[in-house]
Automatic annotation (TrEMBL):
Job description of the protein: Allows the formation of correctly charged Gln-tRNA(Gln) through the transamidation of misacylated Glu-tRNA(Gln) in organisms which lack glutaminyl-tRNA synthetase. The reaction takes place in the presence of glutamine and ATP through an activated gamma-phospho-Glu-tRNA(Gln).
GO-annotated molecular function: glutaminyl-tRNA synthase (glutamine-hydrolyzing) activity
Top-rank taxon, per record: Bacteria
Active site: K86, S161, S185
Name recorded for this polypeptide: Glutamyl-tRNA(Gln) amidotransferase subunit A
PANTHER family: GLUTAMYL-TRNA(GLN) AMIDOTRANSFERASE SUBUNIT A (PTHR11895:SF151), TRANSAMIDASE (PTHR11895)
Enzyme nomenclature, EC number: 6.3.5.7
Amino acid sequence: MTTPLPPDPASSYPTAAELSSEIRSGRLTAVAAAQASAERIAALDGTVRAFLHTDAERSAAWAADADRRIAEGSQSDLAGIPVAIKDNLCIEGEPCTCASRMLENFRPPYTATAVRRLLDAGAVPIGRTNLDEFAMGSSTENSVAGPTRNPWDPVRAPGGSSGGSAAAVAAGMAPIALGSDTGGSIRQPAAFCGVVGLKPTYGRVSRYGLVAFASSLDQIGPFARTVRGAATVLQTIAGHDPLDSTSLSDPVPDYLTDLDEPLAGLRVGVVADHFDVGLDKEVADAVQGAIETYRSLGAEVVNVTLPHSKYSVATYYLIAPSEASSNLARYDGVHYGHRAKKFGSLEELYERSRGEGFGNEVKRRIMLGTYALSSGYYDAFYLKAMKVRRLIQQDYDAAFEQCDVIASPVTPTTAFAIGELADDPLAMYLSDVYTISANLAGIPALSLPCGFSKGLPIGLQLLGPALSEPKLLRAARMYEFTTDWHTRVPPLQDQTGVTP
């Protein structure tokens, strides 16, 4: 018989659970909660630049509707909770730019299923967050609107591509946010910003309404200040969707009831190669310290191997750009997206529209993918990469026969300075070296805070077998309860120099 963990200690910024308690008790209204988020965005976003678009009037209307539902007896844990939405997820009638000139005038005629489920639960979208253009990047610098800044140090990047969502949660602008993860785009910014970020099993959350980057890798997931916040969002957005042919039909388990029950007999896998050359010493020490914490809690720490993980980056940068080349072919100035004003022939229209509409990183990946798919190279590159992907999946299958979760770093370093890797694409790509393989294997993985180095957060990554989110979340909560890393907040000041 295990003893439930007590509630989280209160932090400087209210968590989703704390806000929900206030709203459902009647001590706070959803309208007031949305207004508080709007005021914090106004005070801080001139520095952080997490948001691309806000609509206070529409958010207030959603909040008023949430208050009505609560008065009528709504029991949803998300009723009235402000949520930030990454700007590659469609909301009917709102801008969805993907931080690209290509979609600067796009207003979707439909709402993404994940967002719709949040709205149905009474959550209140408060704005659209910045990202690397079309989610292609690891720093949120590749945005037509300019970079988002890390709340812990504004000269540093928040990670990417979901950097705006991570920064919004870290800065207390919203207690929860949605992002997308194609090769680490939720977990890496969560680590850089000191929040919890979860990439679910591929197909666990519908991709309908997510602007596609790499369709076999993309997955929508939550950011939150705590593991419970992430689990609450997942509980709401997970489940089969007939509008997404890749959506899994498996029933959605209860992620919350047993969340605070420690796992007896937990086996934590460790891969020696994850602590090899290239990993910052302080990051390694923090992650190793987290693993020792699990040992002190009674977990068995076992060594496992992932022999093909060293090929993950190369494999990913063949598969993802190839799928991007196909998905982004529709943006040609005729079917979708920006259209050049001056052109002669149809070919020139395509060339000018795509040249003007796409940024350099997107162009780089389209060219990589087009080359890999071209006649005479398909077998040598894309097909071979798909075969290696299968080997990576098999490695994880074998490893999880020996352990329940694998613990690893999320990133090789803490947050790097904005501009530091801008002229070195390979170094930027390697910042996702620990996260990419989970997308290739389709398994769930999350990042949670496990320490600091020179005032910057460090993330611990936990990975589990497909559809193991209940155990993964409970394992994360075990660690979270024994530490206070998740209660620490950045020393931000508003635009008048006053700490909120």
